[in-house]
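Much of the work behind modern protein science is quiet bookkeeping, done one molecule at a time. The protein below has been through that process, and both of its lines are reproduced in full.


***
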Amino acid sequence: MDFVQRLTGLVGAENITASPVDCLAYSRDMSIHVGVPHAIVFAKSTEQVSEILQFANSEKIPVTARGTGSSVTGAVLAPKGGIILDFTRMNAVLEINKADGYAVIEPGVICNALNAKLAPSHFFPPDPGSAAIATIGGMIATNASGVRAAKYGTTKDYVKTLTVVLADGRILETGDMAPKSSAGYDLTHLFSSSEGTLGIITRAVVKILPMPEYEAFAKASFPDVDTAGLAVEKIFTSGLELATCEILDNICLQVCRDALKMDIPREVNCQLFMGIDGPKTAVQEQIKKIDEICKSVGGIENIWSDNPVEKAKLFAARGGLVPAMSRLKPGYRLVPLVEDFGVPISKIPQTIAEIQQIGAKYGFPVATFGHIGDGNLHATFIMNPTIPEEWEKVKGIALEFIDMTLKHSGTVSAEHGVGMAKSPYINRQLGESLEIMKDIKKTLDPNNVLNPGKMGFDDSIKDILDENSFQKFLKAPEEVFHFPEGVDNEIMACIQCGFCRAGCPTFGETTLESLNAKGRVTLAYNMLMGNIEASPELAKRLYQCMLCLNCKSVCPAQVKVSTIVRSAREKLVNKGYLPEIFKPALAAMIDAANPLLADPAKRCDSYPSEYKKAIPGNTDAILHLGCVTSFQDIKIIPALMQVLDKAGVNYGALGEDESCCGYLAYLVGDMQTFKQAMAKYSGKLETYHPSQLITSCAGCLKTFRDIYPSYGGLQNGLSVVHAVELMEKLIADGKLTFKTDVPPIKVVYHDPCDMGRHMGVYEPPRNVLKAIPGVDLLEFPLNRNLAKCCGGGGGMKGFDNEMAGDIGYKRLLSAVDLGAEMIVSACPSCKGSFNQAAARARKEKKAKIKVMDITELVASRLA
């Protein structure tokens, strides 16, 4: 677009991208809708936003403000194109004043991040289900709420002042710092639910509260919804004040039984999840009264706890429900359509009954849950988006839900806003008020540049299925370019919530959606839909993924993004877009039996002579020497041999006859080369009929134990173990003993992605380290399934060594912050990444820290 060059001059090249691949990654949110922008701009200040809007207004270019993109309504999409103004980088908490009870924040501050800064003395009460990733700017713009709304209200109740940039670039300050004010129109609240259609919020002063003295939580079980609803009505009308009151109907509970394997008694057909806070004695008195009420109406059981760990167990059904909906059946997923209505509390039981009646009418079960304490229900569809008939059903159900809500004098949007999704019918609730809204919009934004196509205004969609991202399944299914079925199902399971932002290392480095798991799934989905062609630009984004699977650990639906990305790489390779940097390595993998371009004759140079030739056929175990440990890091295998010899293990090696396992080829999607490498290695190994294969490499472990069997390699019951698993057993059996007169050392263990998240091997290395005298084992704050990658996974070190190095460096510095003297891992690639990071730390005079493989540390401490 012509305007991109002028925008670049305003914000700098590092704060804008107009790449079609990057823009496509911003085309989705949790709604069914789609909208592709022409450019993404990262705002840095109020003044810069003012300049951007002055320019956009003069050129009549649409501008849509966006936080983390967790909207359920399409509010952050760009159906008219134009500019996405991304506030991810404007994320500073500018001031916290506990005496006057406020915090000054930029719009990109994450809700949970603010609460982390306020703890343990204060908190910011609004807590949407997406609090881990929701920006407070987005929460203000949609007047978001959450599970505490029953007592604490919604986001607008906590906004004192706003800095807003209007469409023409004028900067407006609303509100004041006084405890109360009657000075003119309440413009602060006007902008607090305007979804960026009237102005763009660039700063806010929000109220904060002292943390309650005491909290207690309950899971209450009931025989039916009516009984639960009666209990809630009696609790609230008796003057008791619940902070939290959530409901799950019988269909939700069945989802939890089927998908989460939860043991919920069959007589339980409704559950409430309640929370109370305040002075301890007052809370305990309220618990007694609540128990009496629930028992009096026919409740089955209330289970209370004041332990946060126990709360997680009690609330497991509520917390696991939404992801479970995308895992109930392959190909099916949660589809939010008309799912956020609110009705008077007394109407809740009747409303849930009507929801189930409407669902039954269409032969379509509807799961209903939500914040019963403030009348807010979420009725969600679990459907296969590829089946046209299901869309017709859910559309009919949705329209009847609207009728039902308005019949009960309710609202069609209790907390998620209007966006695109509710535009076709919001006029039925607002009536003449919508016309007044249009007049206000025209006054403040006469050129309609601020978030057009939303809020039910004249340019909005007219049907709830318009701008449907699943449209091709309905109109032209023959044009869909399928992945393997399992991969298609993984793509469909992603509900585009964006929780993966909290885990993805490459997103952490760049804040680009195309370098986040969600963005990569969006790109893969568009490959599926035929909306994007293979290209070097697409390949770049997909090869800048470390396949580390950190995203899965924070994903509500446990989507295997690494599987999706690797399969997308296969498609790229088949189209001729394998990055050039990998081609020599893959050729050498077959021709020279290693991908390092090393002379195969030198594979065993550092090993004892008896291991240079292939072993005889009567050896119990074969030690896989590995490529990195044969040609680059030659300390690991001799150390492991020392350990095995000390323990009396009968083992041998393929020696000079060993070849590469092929893992790199698998990672980059070159399946032809991978299968060649697998056949070559398997054929050699099976000649000797070993019962066990030992490796010191996390990637080789995954290849031999997981990948080969999936492709017909290494059958016949061969046991594949990592050296650390074997060492754990040898120590337990008393076959390894250690020196006791040794200096103490503080060691932090780094979980390799391939061995940890991919294989679930977490405790063996820790048990080995704990057994070594003098080792003070420390833990990274992010460890085990949340451990950050070393930066070298998934081929990333070869493809983008600079970003890989930055990621590894941050991980190393977090070890330094712990006071660690040594980083230990169980993967030679991780060791290489940390050696590179340690050298950088020494050069920059940040720290001196040792790096070792776990086998080296064990060998050095043997008695």
